Amino acid sequence: MRNGEKRSNFECVAVRPASFECVAANPGEIQTVNGPILPGHAGITMIHEHLMVDLTCYCHSPQAAHEKSLVKAPVSLKTLTWIRRNYTSNLDNLTLDEPDLAVEELLEFKYAGGGTIVDAGNIGLGRDPKALQRIADASGLNIVMGAGYYVHQSHPANMDEISEEAICGEIVADVRDGVGSDRIRAGLIGELGCSWPMHPNEQKVLRAGAKAQKATGAPISVHVGLHRESPHQIAQILDRAGADLSRVALCHMDREAPANIERLVELCKMGCYLEFDAFGMDTWDFPDAPNYPQAPIDRITDAQRVELIVRLADKGHLDRIVVSHDIAYKMRLKKFGGSGYDHILSVCVPIMRRKGLGDAEMRKILIENPVRLLTFA
Length: 377
Ligand SMILES: [Zn+2]
Known about the structure:
Blueprint: E1 30-32, E2 35-37, E3 44-49, E4 53-54, H1 65-68, H2 77-85, E5 95-96, H3 99-111, E6 114-119, H4 129-139, E7 142-147, H5 164-176, E8 188-193, H6 200-216, E9 220-223, H7 230-240, E10 248-250, E11 256-257, H8 261-270, E12 273-276, E13 298-299, H9 302-314, E14 321-323, H10 343-354, H11 359-374
Parallel strand pairs: 3-6, 6-7, 7-8, 8-9, 9-10, 10-12, 12-14
Antiparallel strand pairs: 1-2, 4-5, 11-13
Helix pairs in contact: 3-4, 5-6, 6-7
The chain binds zinc ion (ZN).
């Protein structure tokens, strides 16, 4: 351990092959951008992050003249207060495109005890296999990459003409053979993007994802729409299309306040993993919510997130809980005043312990559950 490095409460070492092995993951293995690893080598795992991302599909320009220039302004101390209140209206904030910066930020996660990180980006989110491999090499972390399509705003112009079978075939190829000529393989079908109301092409992608899961044994994760019925709608569509719901993670289940715990329990009983993936997102509203019908008003806080996890644990559903930060905005990196990729390990775990979650519970949330989810069937 170097001077100044933090050690977490967990003994955990990231182990990955010394050289890139050009083989696909077998059942019982996790597929990283540097080849398959055994579940026992994953360690503490963040199930939903973004290391390289282009979220500019969400960018909407403010109406006021004096704010329009801020859309193209770089994230800086001068612009940060405005950006934090309008985080989907600044192009620089919606882009993570510096591998070296990603490594710098990720080392904080590694020094806090982290072993594996999922970049949930896929087509439409600026997925960047080569950069992810470079970040994995430089950081020594296991990195898992996504496949499939994000929300309809990011779909290609000809998405109406692309068939469900073609999308399924593309996902299967990304998992089995790898993406493009570099042949770097995806280890997750996700985050598949869904809106509220759901766009027909998003539904098509969901069904294709379910079929691709059957063909590959890969796990699925789904970005849910901004409405409390969206997760149930998604689970039903996946179920009807033949997905194994016990290998599906529903993202952003900790987004709106107040949370409806009984509805969350229903999803657990269907077998889905619930992602509490906005730890460290300390804004309290949804600036673009007025654009979405019946969107929630308030965001949940970290304290409420922990409270929800404790309540679900008390009800016997801790096996279905996974946590992450879903960092996809520059303002969330430490360099720009954010809490970074180690926030859960450095800040939240001690709070969870004080609220009664012990070693066994922490192990489930941070290691066993995400590792079980990522392991190919
Ligand atoms: Zn995400």
